[in-house]
Write a structure and sequence with these properties.
Order of helices and strands: EHEHHHHH
Helix content: 40-55%
Radius of gyration: 19 Å
Oligomer: single chain
Number of strands: 2
Number of domains: 2
C-alpha cells in the first residue's frame, strides 16, 4: 500500500530548467514555500544537452584548431541528433561524453 504525503506549497514549479529554477529561487527568496519537480535532470535541456554543450564544443574547436569535433558541430547546425552519427562516423555515444572528452583535451 502506498503512503500519501501532503505538502503545502505557495508555489509548485514543474520543470527545473533555467526558467523553473529561476522562478523557484525568486519565490524562495521572498520567503515562500516552493516545491520544484523535475522528471529528468536538474538544469533542463539547455544545461545538459543544448546551449551549454554547444557553446563548449564551439569554444573547444576554436581553441584546439582541430577537426576532431567538426562533424558534431556540423550535425548540430544541420539539426541532426548526435545519436544518428554515432553508429557511423563518431565514437561518442552521447553529447555529454563528447563534451567531456573535448574539454579534457584542451
Amino acid at each position: 500500500m502506498s503512503k500519501t504525503v501532503k505538502h503545502d506549497y505557495d508555489l509548485l514549479v514543474i520543470g527545473a530548467g533555467a526558467a523553473g529554477s529561476s522562478a523557484a529561487t525568486t519565490v524562495d527568496k521572498e520567503g515562500k514555500h516552493v516545491g520544484l519537480v523535475e522528471r529528468s535532470m536538474l538544469g533542463g535541456t539547455c544545461l545538459n544537452y543544448g546551449c551549454d554543450p554547444t557553446k563548449t564544443l564551439l569554444h573547444v574547436l576554436a581553441t584546439r584548431g582541430d577537426d576532431l569535433l567538426a562533424p558534431i558541430v556540423l550535425a548540430m547546425y544541420a539539426g541532426l541528433p548526435l545519436e544518428a552519427l554515432t553508429s557511423t562516423i563518431l565514437p561518442y555515444p552521447t553529447m555529454s561524453e563528447a563534451v567531456r572528452l573535448a574539454a579534457g583535451n584542451v
